[in-house]
Amino acid sequence: MIKPFLLTFFVVHFILNQAVASSSPLRFLTVNEPPASYLDEDGQIQGYVVDIFRSLAQRLEVDAKLEVVPEARALRTAYHNDNTMVFSFSRNAERDQKLNWIGPVLIKTWGLYGLKSFQHDYENLADYPTIGVTKGDIRHEWLANQGLSNLSVNSSHQLNIQLLVRERVSTIAYEGAGLQIVANELDIDPTSFKLLKTLKQQGVYIAMSKHFTKAEQWQQAFEDMQSEGELQKIAEKWRDKIKQQHGVDTQISKSILILK
User: Fold this and answer.
1) How many whole angstroms separate alpha carbon 138 and alpha carbon 156?
2) Over the stretch 51-83, which tens digit does the pLDDT of each residue have?
């Protein structure tokens, strides 16, 4: 049986934590990973998940100013600060302990990609000379957890693609739609690359720090968007836009865009 003074301590501790969380300013971080979120030619933040996020914020009457930061920094900020929302990120056991989730808002198919001239077909990932990954990206964590020593950890997907073209890395871990879109933006022929190995399919979410003001209302707003057909409309808009601008085919399942 908990002694009265201990019970009082726990109650006060909980109340103080809630008070601190509610007093912390809201902060909204995203990463540069098209088509989910990216900076357009005018330096404005655009993207499929950006549209979902902005609709959520509008429903809740929240003045949400977005910041674009590297993936590792976004996660670190959400881990150690209250009232921080970040997107778009996939889940794993470690992240589940530190974050709460809204979604999924997107489905990605991970693959190992190389130049079309790459002729080797290794059975094991450890046998590839180098695999380019982005620091803080879920594919980096997933591959690192397999004990691979051939990872080349870099600051962005854009840099990984450039290193692949220069043959500074032999392969990269990414998804096909993102590879084509970023290659087009870098004026690199997307047909220069080929899929060497399909890795896995993974959902992508909007994440919140463990203490986030009105978290349940954000989740409910997402469910309302889904039931009212707004998620479907946003997915259809971006399916058509991605096809028109980049020639990339995507699919929609349960009102969520799927990148192959």
Assistant:
1) 13
2) 999 999 999 999 999 999 999 999 999 999 999
Strands 38-39 and 99-115: unpaired
β-pair partners for 113: 172, 195
| CA atoms of 88 and 101, how far apart (whole Å) | 10
Q: Which candidate, 237, 233, 251, places its Cα nearest to that of 177?
A: 251
Note whether 204 and 105 are within 8 A (CB): yes
Look at the pTM and tell me if it is higher than 0.90: no
State phi, psi for 14 to the nearest 5 degrees: -65, -45
Q: For the residues 9-22, what does the mean pLDDT come to?
A: 44
Distance of CA 96 to the CA centre of its chain: 14
- Give Cα 65 to chain centroid, integer Å: 18
Q: What are phi and psi of 66, to 5 degrees?
A: -90, 145
Q: What is the mean pLDDT of residues 141-167?
A: 96
Backbone φ and ψ for 63, nearest 5 degrees, come out as -80, 95
d(CA 256, CA 226): 9
Above 90 in pLDDT, residue 16? no
Computed over its alpha carbons, how large is the radius of gyration of the chain? 20
